[in-house]
Amino acid sequence: MSETAAPAPPPLVLNIQYTKDLSFEVPNAPAIYTVLRSPPTVNINLDVQVRRIQEDQTVYEVTLAARAEATLPTPANGAAPEKPMVVFIADLAYAGIFTLTGIPENQQEAILLVECPRLLFPFARNILADVTRDGGFPPVMLGPIDFVGLWQSRRAQAAAVAGKA
After folding, report:
1. What domains appear along the chain, each with residue ranges and CATH number?
2. Pick from 144, 143, 146, 91: which is nearest to 113 by CA?
3. For 117-148, what is each residue's pLDDT tens digit?
4. Before 30, cis peptide (omega within 30)?
5. CB 3.0 to 4.6 Å from 94: which of 79, 82, 124, 128, for a disulfide?
6. Angle, nearest 10°, between helix axes 147-164 and 116-134?
7. Nearest partner of 141 among 77, 92, 68, 54, judged by Cα
């Protein structure tokens, strides 16, 4: 009778994903709907936050935070108002609980800040598109995100701050 070993757990497991926080506001409603003649100018800010759930385990909450702030487009004559009128503000924190198994500690940061947000991104993208469309505006469609570039930029900033200390 041969014994077979239990299969090894996968190195990265997404246990659950969820909307941690969602806010959508149209501060200039209803007037904004009468003056908006073309799609608004949308600025997007993205951030990734990682928090260990328990000190003695490799279980982490990874949150992809996205903020979309739309303003009236600059008029064709180029005369920008002193302060652009806000069309809408959408804030989303979309999170997942991830378990890392057998990943060396020196590789965990890259997994948590690149691979985990890459898995969460399509869902966050859909939520942001739906909430802006349901708010009466063209849906905000986020393009592909270079999470490797974001991670490298974050590391460079941290190194620069450490070098000045």
Report:
1. 12-74+82-160 (3.10.420.10)
2. 146
3. 999 999 999 999 999 999 999 999 999 999 99
4. yes
5. 124
6. 110
7. 68
